[in-house]
Specification:
2 copies of one chain form a homodimer.
Chain A (H helix, E strand, L loop, with lengths): L12 H5 L22 H28 L5 E8 L5 H7 L9 E5 L5 H4 L5 H4 L8 E5 L8 H4 L5 H20 L2 E9 L2 H13 L10 H6 L2 H15 L6 E5 L3 H19 L10 H10 L1
Parallel strand pairs in A: 1-3, 1-4, 2-3, 4-5
Chain lengths: 287, 287
């Protein structure tokens, strides 16, 4: 499926980026731009056009949820290595939607209270309401990524979590939420360049954390943990998409497109009036 | 004070719109555009320029809060009659800021749980974190506006609330939050036109509520309740601004300007690195 009037794609982005059987993360080149026929120069215009569509789709979704009490919502799950561009996706893709239609949840190191509960406890509380586009900046997948790499939980608990995630996401999807899981995939070299830029620019110093360099040594372990995540949790109701992200402009266009597809699939229509329009016109005119 | 490079204002918006001693709401013409020297045609460009400034200020505020553990934040309180343009302010002014830097709270009819607590209980929970621009779409002022007009609480309880609000806001301001309270002021005729448009356009039908016409009959009572709010709660630490809002483009520019002023007054600077920048460059290069 290609989102309406998204004519700049040569292929089906959904299929090109989706994690299916036999997927191998190591085979994905983070510098590629699968399915996009044009270049960076045109990407800005295409992103702007998509922004208008995304905003209208979300408003329709919201309107329907208010009038028809439908449960449809969208949940974008963003996972990535540091500096891969999650923030840029939120700013430039999600930021084009009316703030009233977006619910953003950033999951950081769990608090002591959160650690007392099951790992999905804090996640469930932040699921989007009907009509809303929810965005998870990191998510329950941290508990099988850093959780696995840094051995923050026993091996059998990590193992248990994959099925717990699948069951949880199935329940969420069945309740009306379209789940779009995205891993922004950058190369270690690109990350090095981006971190170096943070060191070179005083207005970016605050974004740099010396711990980021230590994490780089664990890169292969993280990639292995992602590979396992993809094998165990890319399902029909909650598929993973691996988006090559060395080129920021491509990653933004691709994620925007995945969101547009999810909304197009829901196809929300403006709801009909639940009152007598002509009678109300008369009442209002007389008021 | 005029926000830097906001050269299109002829007067001090802050002073022109601020509710001071002797303020009379009935004397404000909702069609006026105080302090703005240009017209609608230029307003879009000026709003776009301000958007860039607002976004950068907020990022600086956020950066400082992360590194220096400062408490500064901004809280925009929006109150208005239906269709006055709160949603437009959120979409077009607040929407220009990175979604990661904004916390939006819409206060609707209180839930049974909320009604069991003091009226400020639900408000306190939604105050912005350091570094964030909080936006209240309606607020604790509903409890002395509709609360008063529709007699939802005894008269002495309503009376008590004005001082409770002042004490509460003083505490919030002392803790580092710059409070900007805005009433978007439209005329009954303009409201009628806007509601009629909702009835005329199928994509706006969902925004119309027959109860809106009933509320119109209470207009003078609402204006009297607002006048009392202004007299009792426009303080040094949390001033009210009445923004003429019959012209949407003016109201958006004016609110943007008030936010810019609040941020300029905080004047957040990019924080210095808390690590050895040169040493980190070497570590990173070697990684």
């Amino acid at each position: 499926m290609i989102a309406k009037s998204q004519k700049h794609w040569t292929g089906d982005v959904h299929d090109l980026l989706r994690v299916g059987d036999g997927f191998v993360l190591a085979d994905v080149d983070p510098r590629e731009t699968p399915g996009y026929m044009k270049d960076k120069v045109h990407a800005a215009d295409d992103l702007a056009a998509g922004s208008v569509q995304l905003d209208e789709y979300q408003e329709r979704l919201f309107a329907r949820s208010r009038v028809d009490a439908t449960n449809a919502s969208v949940l974008l799950v963003l996972q990535a290595m540091d500096s891969a561009g999650k923030g840029g996706i939120i700013r430039h893709v999600v930021g084009s939607v009316d703030p009233q239609g977006v619910a953003l949840a950033a999951f950081k190191k769990p608090t002591p209270e959160e650690l007392e509960h099951d790992f999905l406890w804090r996640i469930e509380k932040r699921l989007p309401e009907p009509g809303i586009i929810g965005v998870f900046d990191r998510s329950h997948y941290e508990d099988v990524l850093i959780g696995r790499v840094r051995e923050l939980a026993p091996a059998d608990e990590i193992e248990r979590r994959y099925s717990a995630i699948n069951e949880f996401e199935k329940k969420v999807a069945d309740a009306g939420t379209r789940i779009v899981k995205v891993m922004l995939h950058i190369s270690p070299d690109e990350q090095k360049e981006r971190l170096m830029e943070r060191l070179e620019r005083p207005d970016k110093h605050w974004k740099y954390n010396p711990g980021d360099v230590d994490e780089r040594e664990l890169w292969p372990k993280y990639m292995a943990a992602y590979q396992t995540v993809f094998e165990r949790t890319s399902t029909e109701h909650a598929p993973w998409y691996v988006v090559p992200a060395d080129r920021k402009w491509y990653a933004r266009l691709a994620v925007q497109h995945l969101l547009l597809e999810a909304l197009e699939d829901i196809d929300p229509q403006w709801p009909a009036a639940t009152y007598d329009v002509e009678a109300e016109k008369k009442r209002l005119a007389a008021s």
